[in-house]
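Lab meeting prep.
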Amino acid sequence: MKKPLRTPCMAVIVLLAVIISGYAFQGNAADTTSQEAPSWYYHSIVDVKFVKDHTGMPMPDHVMLIDARPYKPKYVKGHIPGAVNIPDNEFDKHIDLLPADKSALLIYYCEGIECKLSHKSAQKAEKLGYTNVKVFAKGYPEWKKAFGASTTLTVKAGEVEGSMDIAMFEDLLANSPEAMMIIDVRDKDEFDKGAFTGSVHIPVDDLENKIKDLPTDKLIVYVCSTGARSGEGYYMTKDVRPSLKDVYYLEAGCSFNENGSYKIKKTEG
């Protein structure tokens, strides 16, 4: 009995069957970045490997990773390391945080494949003229699944070494004070007249012996009335306990009123 011949026609049929089954599998996959992606999806989608390969701590030059979710309760509870939080509903308020270079790589993400926030923000960035915008559609849930959770805040630095951006400090103070330990290094008579809510009073003259007890799970932020003593506290901490990484100070003057209000004035020169 002769064996059936495998003609070129049969080979083509087998190849087509493999291709069709591949498309069927792709269509059934949970990844909505396939050809069945919703119409509101941004046109340039990347996966978790792309994000891992192009970001890091410190963040590479010309790359910005942006978390488009609300600060509370999402970003502050966990985010991809190095990500800057610009909630989509506050996009227009924080355009100044985006890089001046319109060719910089912007990677937006939010809360997973059904979350629209990152796609909406990416479209807004593209309208501003940014030419290399991507969306990590599976977002933070996929990152957490692959690499675990992170609650480390990305601090926006001030203009001088060791300082924290004043606007970021005020935002943390208003929305997430539990994320930082504010250490007021002024003298007692100054502190008694007013201070930031929840701040700890350690005069700079008494600070050195207490540095060993500072926590590692919060941002440490030194404040004073001019920025001089707070800066001294920062550098003292770096000398005494260099392993403590999340330490900053306000290069600013802080004054307080009897009604509990305060004023932060940027130090000149």
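Slide two material, second protein:
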Amino acid sequence: MVDGIILAGGKSTRMKTNKMLLTINEHPIIWHTLKSIEPFVSKVIIVTGLYDKEIREALKGENVTFVHNLDYEKGMFSSVQKGIGETTNDFFIIPGDCPFVKPDTFKALLAGKGEVRVPRYLSEDGHPIYISKKYKNEILSMPLDSNLKIFRDSKNYEIINVEDKNIVINLNEFLDYQNIKITEEGR
């Protein structure tokens, strides 16, 4: 069994609007992220921050555990730790703005053998990252100025090569959103 953590605690400063609630095919981006991970986990934990109420409202009725990170201004790693604190199993971590990861990517990560597994498309590492529950306390004890890359790089992590460009997509600028919206709505 694996838990899934979706990070949605940021302020979306570069996007200048709550990017988690921008829509593609009539659903918010975070809903797409939820639907991509949901079949592969026993529990979904969504870590919110500034937009806690709005995200809860957008996902009302979904089978998720919400965790409000009151320290979201301290950076993404505070949300990572908040989410990991709610896990009981091995876990995936994925940003909420990584909405269209393919099922084959999750399957490949689950089939891996490493205690830390990272998908790679061509030569670029992406999301979600898979982490063994044995590292839960280590991550929770790391300082807030740390990050997942520092943790990952301290381990002998397994690279899982995938044919999924969506693992490297982050929707940080409005043009990123427009491009993925055109692609996804045109299917």
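Talking points for slide two:
The domain at 2-185 is CATH 3.90.550.10 (Spore Coat Polysaccharide Biosynthesis Protein SpsA; Chain A).
The chain has a mean pLDDT of 91.
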